[in-house]
Amino acid sequence: MRQWIFHFCRNALRLPLGIFIRKVHFDGKENFKKGVPVLLACNHPNSFLDGVIFEHLSGRSVYTLARGDAFLSPVANYILRGMRLLPIFRATDASAEIARKGNANTKDEIYDLFTKQHSVLIFSEGIGYPEKALRRLKKGTGQIAADSVRKSDFTMDLYILPTALNYSKFWTKQQTIHVTYGEPIRVLDYIDLINEDEKGFIELATEKIQISLEKNVVLTKGDHRDEKEFAQEMLINENYHPFKFKIKDKWDYSIGKINTMSADLAEEIKNYKSELLKYAVLDSNVGNQSIDFVSAFIAIFTTGVSLPLYIVWSLLWYAVDKTIKSKIKNIVFWDSVVVGLMMIVGLIITSIAGAILNSFIPGYWPWLFLALGTYGAICWFRLVDSFPHLWKELKWMSLNKNERQSILGKRNAILSSLK
Asked: Cα–Cα distance between 6 and 119 in angstroms, integer?
């Protein structure tokens, strides 16, 4: 009944997400089983935007658990549920009575979704924060899994899927996002443990999820922070695909080795960065990253319609971004609020522009021009984002063969250590 809200939001988010995200990687897709209920246990680096990645980009039907206090208003409750969000109450979200009743109702809804072979996303850290780190996981994931299979009299073939979510950076446009689906945990394999010691199962499941996420979530806090950040950038460049927005099962390096970086590897990265600065080139140049010629062609081909839209959207994004960062002190919500506001602004601008064009040009042509211009504007964002690479490419090509081979050798040595 409320599916229209989900589909409306998915289409309305195409432009702001196209500006916000450059590439999205999904690895380990074979672990995200079909035809069975799946409970995705994910880290939580970027508030409501994390759920959008799975609901709108994963290609799977996913319902997401979100903070319960956002659902307290009847209007918000209706809209958020239409967006495939379900409330989960923490102690700080509402009174004890409201939280108990709300969580009991949500558990019933989750069970109903599982009986229909749907997938549910839970952020097992319990809270979100924009940093490349991982907190100790809450035990709610294991509790929901145990309760669901017990309620089915142990007939439900439920899987817990550890899911790592990484952003290349926060609070900026054209990010690269990397999702890794880890080894699934089949809950029915632990029937005896659940019957004999349910608390023990919950602790075991929580520990298994924690171990999986620690291998697949980029953790830069602590020693060698700058080198770990740069190593992640190198892997993003190495796994770049010029013609695809969604890239599946192509990531061929170990995030875990970034997290456990040795002093020797950190020193290699420092030396390599020094070489890049010395010759004024980028890692993407050394890695021979291809240009997205398709986006460049579309941007240039649609210049008459798309370039004005790109300029307007760039100015709007800048204004909204600056306003949000000055007015909202909690950095947790910055990216999500910017994308949400740009969705609303985009709808208003598109409606006004469509109405104006329709007064001069009847029929479907105005809307066709707007659709073409909108996609062309996204391509302009991609093209402009690649300008530093293109400029430095000239510098890279001007180096002599020995200089290029020396720098490339340092890069290859680092990548070999991250296999």
From this structure: 16
Cα 336 from Cα 49, distance rounded (Å) = 5
Question: Torsions phi, psi of 194, nearest 5?
Answer: -65, -40
Max Cα separation, the chain?
74
* Residue 1 pLDDT greater than 60, yes or no: no
Average pLDDT, the chain: 93
Q: Are 354 and 368 in contact (CB under 8 A)?
A: no
Domains and CATH numbers, the chain: 3-217 (3.40.1130.10), 228-291+389-417 (no CATH), 293-385 (no CATH)
Place of tokens 């796994």: 239
CB-neighbour burial class of residue 304 (10 A; exposed 0-12, middle 13-18, buried 19+): exposed
DSSP state of 42: E
Q: How many other C-beta atoms lie within 10 A of the C-beta of residue 419?
A: 8
Based on its alpha-carbon atoms, the radius of gyration of the chain, rounded to whole angstroms, reads 23
Per-position b or e across 265-290, b if 16+ CB within 10 A of its CB: bbebbeebeebbeebebbbbbbbebe
- Residue 335, sorted as left (phi over 0), alpha (psi -120 to 50) or beta, turns out to be alpha
Q: Can you tell me the distance from the alpha carbon of 9 to that of 344, in angstroms, rounded to the nearest whole number?
A: 10
CB atoms within 10 A of CB 179: 24
Residue 183, SS3? Answer: coil
State the Cα–Cα distance between residues 338 and 323, nearest whole angstrom: 9
Q: Residue written as tokens 């996609």?
A: 375
What's the gap between Cα 20 and its chain centre? 10
Q: What is the DSSP string of 283-302?
A: HHHHTTPPP-HHHHHHHHHT
Distances (CA, A) of 185 to 118, 212, 387: 16, 11, 44
Euclidean distance between CA atoms 186 and 197, whole angstroms? 17
Each residue's pLDDT tens digit, 155-182 = 999 999 999 999 999 999 999 999 999 9
Task: Tell if the pTM clears 0.85, that is, is over it.
Answer: yes
| Sign of the Cα pseudo-torsion (317, 318, 323, 326, in order) | positive
Strand partners, 119: 38, 62
265-285 pLDDT, tens digit each: 999 999 999 999 999 999 999
The C-alpha atoms of residue 264 and residue 266 are separated, in whole angstroms, by 5
Q: Is the confidence at residue 412, as pLDDT, over 90? A: yes
Tokens for 357, please give them. 């064009």
CA distances to 84, 275, 360 from 367, in Å: 28, 50, 12
